[in-house]
């Protein structure tokens, strides 16, 4: 998962540093959807998509049990209640990783949604824990 603006960078870097991996770029109006996408996933090692498409396509992306989900520029999901943030938390995976150079842009609370993506329920839900 990454911002739309860096999908091609990720694709280029994967080809450069991991040429043996099969990469599916899930992007654009001609992207695979629904059962066509779900059926294609086992044929690839890496699926690249954007935060914008994640919340549009969450219905079929969330039925897959992913080996891992990596969120590049994870500050894109800093607001707990946005569609993007809810969509990424709905994905099932064996592991999750968040990459960001700016985990806190203005408030410590910005980090909460990122932590909840990495470790769901680490603070007991959406309410703040006392103590």
Task: Present the secondary structure layout.
Blueprint: H1 7-17, E1 23-26, H2 34-40, E2 46-49, H3 51-61, E3 65-72, H4 83-90, E4 92-99, H5 110-118
Parallel strand pairs: 1-2, 3-4
Question: Could you characterize the architecture of this molecule?
Answer:
GO terms for molecular function: ATP binding; hydrolase activity. Its EC number is 3.6.1.-. Keywords: Hydrolase. The chain is of the alpha/beta class and 131 residues long. It has one domain: Tandem AAA-ATPase domain (Rossmann fold). 35% of the residues lie in helices and 18% in strands. It has a two-stranded parallel ribbon with strand order 1-2. The protein has a two-stranded parallel sheet with strand order 3-4. Helix 4 links the parallel strand 3 and strand 4. Helix 2 packs across helix 3 and helix 3 crosses helix 4. The termini are far apart. 19% of the residues are buried. The model has no long low-confidence stretch (mean pLDDT 90).
Quick tags:
131 residues, alpha/beta, Rossmann fold, two-stranded parallel ribbon, two-stranded parallel sheet, globular, SNF2_N, Helicase_ATP-bd, hydrolase activity, ATP binding, hydrolase
Quick summary of this structure?
By secondary structure, the chain is an alpha/beta fold.
CATH topology: Rossmann fold
Level-1 CATH class name: Alpha Beta
Radius of gyration, Cα only, in angstroms? Answer: 15 Å
- Which residues form runs of ≥5 with pLDDT under 50? none
Name of the CATH homologous superfamily: Tandem AAA-ATPase domain
Helix content: 25-40%
GO molecular function: ATP binding; hydrolase activity
Domain Helicase ATP-binding: 1-121
Pfam families: SNF2-rel_dom
Enzyme class: hydrolase
């Amino acid at each position: 998962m990454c911002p739309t603006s860096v999908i091609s960078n990720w694709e280029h870097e994967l080809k450069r540093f991991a040429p043996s991996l099969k990469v599916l770029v899930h992007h654009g109006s001609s992207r695979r959807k629904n059962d066509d996408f779900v059926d294609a996933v086992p044929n690839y090692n890496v699926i690249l998509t954007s935060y914008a498409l994640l919340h549009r396509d969450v219905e079929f992306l969330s039925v897959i049990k992913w080996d891992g989900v990596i969120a590049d520029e994870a500050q894109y999901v800093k607001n707990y209640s946005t569609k993007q943030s809810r969509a990424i938390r709905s994905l099932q995976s064996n592991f999750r990783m968040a990459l960001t150079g700016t985990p806190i842009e203005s408030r410590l609370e910005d980090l909460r949604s990122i932590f909840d993506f990495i470790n769901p329920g680490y603070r007991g839900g959406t309410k703040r824990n006392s103590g």
